[in-house]
Amino acid sequence: MSKNLLFIPGPVTVAESVLAASAQPMIDHRGPEFKALLERIAERLKPVFGTERADVLVLGSSGTGGLEAAVGNLFGPGDRVLACPIGVFGQRLIAIARSFGCEVEVLETPWGSGTDPAALRARLHADGERRFDGVLLTHNETSTGAQNDMAALAAAVRGHGAYTVVDSVSGLAASEFRMDEWGFDIVVAASQKALAAPPGLAMVAVAPRAWERIDANLGAQRFYFDLKKAREFGALGQTPWTPPVSVAFGLDAGLAEFERLGAAAVHERHARYAQSIRAAAEALGLILFSQAGAHSPTVVAIRLPEGIDGDAIRKSLRESRGVVIGGGQAALKGKIVRIGTMGDLTQTDILGAIGALEIALFEAGAPIRVGTGVQAALKVFLEADQPAAV
Ligand SMILES: *Cc1c(COP(=O)(O)O)cnc(C)c1O
Question: Which of 71, 167, 225, 329 to mutate for ligand 1's pocket (most ligand atoms within 8 Å of CB)?
């Protein structure tokens, strides 16, 4: 199979214009061209985060490095944080906090749902002595295909005073994010998800309030991910350490494309693709893993019928049809498949992936009517774009 279509939720299919930008000759990372590049990236990212006040720092790392930077700079040994995991990536945030010596209390949520704002509000309200230093939140949980209502969670935290860290690695740029309005302290994203650039850069937006705590956190365990150093060098148009220059070229081109299309159109595309995949799954009689009201626009998680092994389905799709989709992680391994909507994908790509999935399911003996999924997905696209055709 020579041609592969990538439907995993990161890294994603990268547009040719972005790939071409990444292939430019190296430049001096302490010179004027890189300074202009870094400043342009930071400025273009601000509206994507929904901030005018925060500093947007670009770190040479995957998304996890950005999360480590957020937690490790804000908190330290003995600090108490309330973690609100809704899946595997929320659990990773807990592991990071524990590795920095934080005492972590967990507000549990059944996987597939978002954090209940009322439960969060109640837990923080019960913390009358304000003993929680931080709250850890996930915007979009890639492992379950669920997305939180961040406006509601922001309102639940407001008034308590705990510092918030938001993992928006697979959320940012695919739907509206309003960091300033919602009052989050640090929000983390990465280059290889909805901004559709190659992997290698984490983007960390730090609000003024977070800087006060970071500046006072003198015992923090940090070196490579020292946000104070990133801020100091950022002011000079540099990064403290050698950055992945090629990825920065790509991210800049990805942001240019985001601007050209407009945020509203990009958000609408992700929502529509996810809606069409969900419609296909439901038409095939498959059950979505995410609960109504919490569906993610960037990744659709689908339960497989009893007796069908998700990993075998993925292998068949990859080897026979050149379609690469995600599987279940941790406890969900083999039980679900995950189809990402991020990246340089067309409606035709989405329809092709659904058709390929139908064939693979049919060949594996799943009780589906081949063709019904594609038809339902097509209807979603036509209703939006060509209502006269439906
Ligand atoms: C992809 C992802 C990450 C970061 O993963 P890296 O492999 O370190 O880039 C973190 N959180 C979420 C929700 C993600 O989807």
Answer: 167
SS3 sequence of 187-235: EEEECCCCCCCCCCEEEEEECHHHHHHHHHCCCCCCCCCCHHHHHHHHC
Asked which of 217, 239, 259 is the last residue of a domain, the reply is 259
Residue closest by Cα to atom 5 of ligand 1: 63
**pLDDT tens digits for 229-252?**
999 999 999 999 999 999 999 999
CATH number at residue 303: 3.90.1150.10
Residue with tokens 């083999």: 334
* Of 99, 68, 190, nearest in space to 139 by CA: 190
Mean pLDDT value of segment 351-370: 97
**CA 169 – ligand 1 centroid, Å:** 6
Residue 299 CA, closest ligand 1 atom number: 15
Say how far apart CA 170 and CA 189 lie, in whole Å.
Answer: 7
How many independent structural domains does the chain possess?
Answer: 2
Predicted confidence band of residue 2 (pLDDT cuts 50, 70, 90): low
pLDDT > 90? residue 264? yes
Does the pLDDT of residue 383 top 80, yes or no? yes
- Ligand 1: atom nearest CA of 64 is 8
Q: Give the binding-site residues of ligand 1, using a 6 Å CB cut-off.
A: 9-10, 62-64, 89, 138, 142, 167, 169-170, 190
- Give the residue among 329, 321, 328, 383 at the shortest CA–CA distance from 352: 321
The ligand 1 atom at the shortest distance from the C-alpha of residue 138 is 13
